[in-house]
Design the sequence.
């Protein structure tokens, strides 16, 4: 079966990407990072999603000794109620985050003989991150072709970005069509009992669900505690 | 002062690269990885070198859940007394190793405002690793320009490879000229009391020192224990 690595973050986009890859017949190996982010709720959500999709999940521990982002450093304020679609790179940008995540995915792919890496990056309703744009993904792909054993042997590893040109509304529709259990996903940058509703990630998610006149599904603490036992490794 | 990140492995090449960067006036921030390699002796050696050069060193912990290399998995035999200069990728290749290491260096560089990453990759007397070639380094550089905040803001981060076109003999001469304390470096893939002398890394090192009629300096266990207290963080 065609093996793939799926970068999972527990949010709507990466979960939809996982279900998309599954729908295309890939055997998916999920990867998430415990990298000192503000909260661990996204890891718990990723475990729920991986279990629901019956795919294995690896949690990679990374101790980043430096900060430089509102997602790593609680002393930096998270932006609230910002205008969506604004330009500029927000303080939630983590230096080289997707570059690091994709590099582990490439290593994992080579180690298990997978030829595809799926990432739920999105360049339409994105938050201004340079490492979510098609230009970057093409450059990453070109770099892998030069630096990996698989690359120089002509069996390249492809970076797949099925959501990159979709709006949040289109992602919500795709998630519905694929049967993604969106109530298990967590998008909020905060790790509270309920999503804060004012961070960029909450507002983009809300915009998506509002656009398709759908109730915004919420991963509650009770739901999380009830379902998080017996998670896939 | 012009800040730079130096990927240090405790071996001859990366140590020479550090001293080279220092000689060019860079303020060097060294980086080494504890990634489940066969032995920790290279980390101890890197600490000695960082201390000798009076540069700070960060040790980044990475728990790679997969194997796929003789440097990660003791069940895979290390090649012994192989012909140097042979073609093909040896079993000591670690999937995406330099891709991962450079990605952390890029993150660190952005976090502290450094504009240069030094890596001691060498494509002349190399062991067949695809991620040590100039082609790969150029592609990595191009990818950073697209994926980093610094890149899209036009303040690109440069990957510097001062040793890439040098032979081992030329590296040994450069190390001498720069005053690198080569007796503190460790190149052997094994972590024994003395270098094994038969792995690719030992043989390349020996070739370099023999070419310039120099005694091969050796980091002994006694030397290591004596000097490893009070290492730089």
Sequence:
């Amino acid at each position: 079966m065609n093996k793939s690595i799926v970068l999972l973050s527990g949010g709507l986009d990466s979960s939809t990407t996982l279900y998309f890859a599954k729908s295309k017949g890939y055997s998916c190996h999920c990867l998430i990072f415990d990298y000192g982010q503000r909260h661990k709720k996204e890891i718990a959500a990723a475990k729920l999603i991986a279990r629901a999709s019956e795919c294995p999940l690896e949690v990679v521990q990374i101790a980043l000794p430096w900060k430089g982002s509102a997602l790593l450093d609680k002393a930096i304020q998270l932006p609230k109620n910002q205008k969506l679609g604004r330009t500029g790179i927000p303080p939630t940008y983590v230096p080289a985050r997707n570059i690091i995540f994709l590099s582990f995915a490439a290593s994992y792919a080579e180690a298990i003989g997978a030829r595809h890496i799926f990432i739920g990056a999105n360049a339409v309703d994105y938050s201004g991150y340079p490492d979510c744009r098609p230009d970057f993904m093409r450059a990453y792909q070109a770099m892998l072709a030069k630096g990996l054993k698989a690359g120089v042997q002509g069996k390249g590893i492809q970076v797949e970005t099925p959501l990159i040109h979709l709006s949040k509304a289109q992602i919500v529709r795709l998630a519905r069509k694929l049967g993604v259990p969106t109530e298990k996903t967590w998008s909020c940058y905060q790790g509270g009992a309920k999503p804060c509703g004012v961070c960029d990630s909450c507002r983009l998610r809300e915009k998506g669900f509002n656009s398709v006149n759908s109730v915004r599904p919420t991963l509650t603490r009770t739901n999380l505690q009830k379902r998080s036992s017996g998670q896939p490794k």
